[in-house]
Amino acid sequence: AKASGLKLTGEGGVLQQLTKLMLESALEGEITDHLGYDKHDPAGRGTGNSRNGTRSKTVLTDVGPVEIDVPRDLAASFEPKIVAKRQKRLGGVDEMVISLAAKGLTTGEISAHLAEVYGAEVSRQTISTITDKVIEGMTEWQNRPLDPVYPVIFIDAIHVKIRDGQVANRPIYVALAVTCEGRRDILGLWAGDGGEGAKYWLHVLTELKNRGVADVLMVVCDGLTGLPDAITTVWPQTITQTCVVHLLRNSFRYAGRQHWDAIAKALKPVYTAPTEAAARERFAEFTDTWGGRYPAIVRLWDNAWAEFVPFLAFDPEIRRVICSTNAIESVNARIR
Questions:
Q1: Ordered per-residue pLDDT tens for the chain, 336 residues
Q2: Are 252 and 263 in contact (CB under 8 A)?
Q3: Residue 17 and residue 24: Cα distance in Å, rounded?
Q4: What is the dihedral of CA 70, 74, 77, 80, to 10 degrees?
């Protein structure tokens, strides 16, 4: 390419020529498979269908617009797959538009970017059409029917910056379930306003029930005030499990940093106790040691005790899964 003075990218560049060659070769392979014989093969005589020239078509690719020759057949029964009829864009362009929209660019900015970098003229209407398909798919996913029973549902909210006219921190409510087959399934994502609240969680859980979730054996959540009441309002027999990690983090808020390690070490026998009775004994020992200095930590655990102890009734293997909302943390990281 360098020796002949060809450009690598842009109109007439090597990448465009290679893309044209690849697409046309693939289309030729498709029509050969459709007809059942190669071009100029005598085996095609008398079959009732044959090649009937080509038609030109320009498709938008991630290396810019590429003009290709699409083969035709006499019976007009050929339906190409790699570049379908009436398709004007290959998948990479749609993904690029969606990615740019997710980064906060307007339709005009996306159009200008594609024109400047790829020499591709894409109208604002086309860009809106591409992003609207994502919204349609998202809406369909968000409203899909759910299983009637889930053994465990993890719920948590993460605060992220969202542009909605202006950039602001908003909570994203996430519900992740373990199915009866043992698989994880994200049930939904909801963008709330302001701070995380039990009232909005009640709205989320009610929506899950309306989508078919008749019963949940256990809901694992943080220690948000009012959240256990919201859960029992929707599913009266569901066990609420408070995340042990959140309890520890909240405990540190009431202690001096110099005591964090000692407090964590003193609380570990509580949440690793073999039974609830043993946990209560270990907590009494913690109270004797640290209750005088940090009574707020003792009150925190006393108030959360009913939602803290359910996981102690299970085997150690199950405890590790349901004692915290760690299962949902990886989802939150991806949202960030």
A1: 667 777 776 676 777 788 888 888 888 888 888 888 888 888 777 788 888 899 998 888 777 788 899 999 988 899 888 888 887 877 666 777 777 777 777 888 888 877 776 666 677 887 787 777 777 888 888 899 999 999 999 999 888 887 777 778 888 899 999 999 999 999 998 988 877 788 999 999 999 999 999 999 999 998 888 999 999 999 999 999 999 999 999 999 999 999 999 999 999 999 999 999 999 999 999 999 999 999 999 999 999 999 999 999 999 889 988 998 888 877 777 766
A2: yes
A3: 11
A4: -10
For the record, the structure tokens of 91 come out as: 């998948």
How many CA atoms lie within 13 Å of 106's alpha carbon, on the beta-carbon side?
5
Model-wide pTM > 0.70: no
Q: Which two tokens stand for residue 246?
A: 């959140």
Lookup: tokens for 208: 């899950």
In three state form, how does the secondary structure of the chain look?
Answer: CCCCCCCCCCCCCHHHHHHHHHHHHHHHHHHHHHHCCCCCCHHHCCCCCCEEEEEEEEEEEECEEEEEEEEEECCCCCCCCCCCCCCCECHHHHHHHHHHHHCCCCHHHHHHHHHHHHCCCCCHHHHHHHHHHHHHHHHHHHCCCCCCEEEEEEEEEEEEEEEECEEEEEEEEEEEEECCCCCEEEEEEEECCCCCCHHHHHHHHHHHHHCCCCEEEEEEECCCCCHHHHHHHHCCCCEEEECHHHHHHHHHCCCCHHHHHHHHHHHHHHHCCCCHHHHHHHHHHHHHHHCCCCHHHHHHHHHHHHHHHHHHHCCHHHHHHHCCCHHHHHHHHHHC
